Amino acid sequence: MQKFCSNCGSKLDYDDDIFCSNCGVKLDDNQENTTNPTTSTENKCPSCGVEVSYGTLICPNCGRTITHNDNMKYLPLIGFGYAITFLKFLIVPDQFNLMIDYLFLIIMSVMGLGIGFHLKNRNNKDAKLHGTVLILFNISLFIFMVLFFILFIIVFFIMLLFG
Q1: Could you tell me which of 3, 53, 95, 121 has the fewest CB atoms within 10 Å of its CB?
Q2: How far apart are CA 7 and CA 26, in angstroms?
Q3: Is the dihedral angle over the CA atoms 106, 110, 116, 117 positive or is it negative?
Q4: pTM, whole model, 2 decimals?
């Protein structure tokens, strides 16, 4: 059975927790339920060094606030993904190289999708959110570009045949 915080009702990570990792309240020593630790991560409290589960805001051992600074390692990739996604709006297809321009835009959409799926599969809440946004934007832009490219090919062949 799982041990729960008497203040907020959240599940406790370890049976020797002194503080609730969700609300920070000091726990009673006579909790009735036993704990069933289900997560094993490499996150540690910077103050006391106790292993904590990902997303824990308050150390269950010493009660200190834990800041997870792994958002910074995804920031360049998130920025690059958005740059690739929205750079497509700045590219105005040249009428002489229209087919090459649209192929380039389609390739950029595929790259944005790849970055989005990569971020979506990370263990970071913000990376997952930005990955989802990049996937949605790039799928819609990819469909638009492919349809426009097909339309261009049809018009090009019609002009070759009749013009």
Answers
A1: 95
A2: 9
A3: positive
A4: 0.51
> What is the tens place of the pLDDT at every residue in 95-107?
667 777 777 888 8
State the DSSP code for 130: H
* DSSP at 33: S
The C-alpha atoms of residue 112 and residue 14 are separated, in whole angstroms, by 40
| Four-residue CA torsion sign, 13, 68, 131, 122 | negative
Contacts of the segment 37-44: beta carbons below 8 A, 24+ positions apart:
37/13, 39/13, 43/68
pLDDT tens-digit map of 73-86: 788 888 899 988 88
Burial of 122 (0-12, 13-18, 19+ CB in 10 A): middle
Structure tokens at 4: 């729960």
Determine the Cα–Cα distance for residues 95 and 92; give it in Å rounded to an integer.
9
Return the sign of the alpha-carbon dihedral for residues 71, 75, 76, 82: positive
**For residue 159, what is the enclosing H or E element?**
helix 125-162
One-character DSSP codes across 84-118: HHHHTTT-PPPSSSHHHHHHHHHHHHHHHHHHHHH
